[in-house]
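retry 2 of 3: previous attempt timed out while embedding heme C. Reduced batch size to 1 and resubmitted. Inputs unchanged:
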Amino acid sequence: MKTLKIIISTIALALVFGGCAYNFIVPEPTVNPDDPNAAEVSFSAEIVPIFASKCTGCHTTGKQLPDLTSDNAFSSLNSSRYVNKSTPASSLIYTKATGNHSATFTSAEAAKVLLWINQGAKNN
Ligand code: HEC
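retry 2 succeeded.
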């Protein structure tokens, strides 16, 4: 009887503490780059961190152009070489990192970068 109680309480405890332990992986929401009503993308708060996490190992001051470090990213990209405001999807900063490159954007990051260019590639 005692053994049974121990078994039952062990199972009950396991259910209480272990039963509901899910690890939710919340997918990154993907913006629609063509949505004219989309919230404004912030270059400093949303784009620069993408560069910092996957690009600045190479694209840093004094190394590979464009310099994508937080202090220099905007001025480096503020040129028709990297940003094509009339045809945003052909911007080099977008095509490079969505093509066959050392590091690439996730689809959510790519959508955000494209939306930023569609919104005028502002230094915001
Ligand atoms: C492992 C090093 C490395 C990483 C990481 C890397 N790049 Fe590059 N990138 C290069 C090299 C080398 C070149 C020059 C050769 C070429 O054009 O592919 C280059 C070229 C580029 C160019 C074209 C530059 C020009 O003026 O022609 C762009 C734009 C670019 N990278 C964007 C990015 C972005 C955005 C990321 C992050 C998602 C990134 N790169 C990550 C090494 C890297």
